[in-house]
Structures are given as C-alpha cells and as structure tokens.
Amino acid sequence: MMTRDRFAAFLLGLLLPLAASAIDGEELLRKVDRNLNPESYEMYRKLINIEPDGRRKEFVLYSVKKGRDKMIALFLDPPSEKGRATLRIGDNMWLFIPEVGKPIRITSLQSVVGGIFNNADIFNLDYSAEYAVEKYEQRPGGHYLELKARTGAVAYDRLKMKVDGPTLLPTEIEAYAASGLLIKTLHFKDIKDFGKGIRRPSVLETDSPLYKGYKSILIYANIGRRDLPDEAFTLEYLPRARELR
Known about the structure:
Elements: H1 4-36, E1 41-50, E2 56-66, E3 70-77, E4 85-89, E5 92-96, E6 103-106, H2 119-122, H3 127-130, E7 131-139, E8 142-149, E9 158-164, E10 170-176, E11 182-195, E12 198-207, E13 215-225
Antiparallel strand pairs: 1-2, 1-13, 2-3, 3-4, 4-5, 5-6, 7-8, 8-9, 9-10, 10-11, 11-12, 12-13
C-alpha cells in the first residue's frame, strides 16, 4: 500500500512536468510577441480584401502601439476613409469619424473595413495579453501552442499556433469559437528584415471556411521602434491622431 508521503511524491512527480510545460509555453508566447513587434512601435500597413470574383478593396493604415495593450490606427487611404482613426485600450475599442465628430464604441468581432479580418485582427495586441497557454508541445522544426482567451471579451475563444523553431515566429494560427467552430486561419509569410533588429513576416493572409472564396491580406512596411506619450492613447487625443505621423 502506498503511504501518504509516497503518494504526495508521486503526485508531485506528475504535476511538475505539467507546470514546467506551462511556464515554458508562456515564455515562448512572450518571445513570439516580441519577435513579431517591438513593445512600442510605429508601422504602415496595406490591407487588401479580395472577393470571389476577383474584386479588391484596399486600405492604407498608419499604426502606433505602446506597451502590450494600447494601439492607434489612422486611415490614410482610400480618400473616403482618410482621417478616420481607431483607439484600442485592452478590450475596449473606439472609432473616430470626422463627419461624426466624436469617438464611437466598436467591438472586436466587428470589422471597420469589411472582409475576413475583424477589428481584433487589425488592431491586435500582444497574444500573451489576451491568451493563456493551455498546451505546449515541441515538434520537429518548431513548436505548437494551444491558447485560451483570458476573458470573454476576446474575439476568439481559442487559438492553435504553429511556431517556427529557428525564428520563434508564428507560421500559422487557427482561430476557434467557444463551440469549437473554426472561424479562420491566419498565415504568416515572407519574413523581411525591417532593420534595427526587427525581422518578422511582412505578409499576413487569412481565409475562412465561413467566407468561401474570400481572402484578406495585410502587408507590413516601415516597422520601427518608437516611444510615445501616454496622453496619445486617450479619447481626447483621438481626433488629433494624424499629428502622430
């Protein structure tokens, strides 16, 4: 018969590898975040929505991010969208439309540009800020993570992330609803050296079984480190977001 002490030691032996795996997974996810982007930065992006008949709609955005959970994106093109700006602080998002004159609330699952990318994809925070690691595996050539949303306000309930071993950059992320339904797959492509130690995918494509024949693409350019004042990430400053460029 196993004594109480021996049982406790046996149980500890089972739990320690699981705890170590969780710690390793969380550390890996934080490294993935930093390899994708500096903690505070500025960048330009072109967003392209492609419909099944080949029609395309394009947007150009200038974005700045501070820390793990603050982002502003300013629309530069097309002319019909110019001057619009979004602010994200944690799970809260607002859109400023010059014609309206004041910020309005938007949600992570909406999309201010249409297409497959939602607001959470476009105005993304660090993955480690929104998700906790539930499963971590080392696989040939890389790593595999299963992530669970930290709150119910996050766009996806779970993510399954494939990470390249040598670069510690994501290659593919599957996004799931709480029901287990696959919502979309994100594909990270074309690693580019942006200078000053920033080397990351320059293209992010997404497709969805819910939108057959549709595709959305983000193309990244001019990513650079930048320190920004806290006052820039406020509703009062949002109408002046163009001054950040």
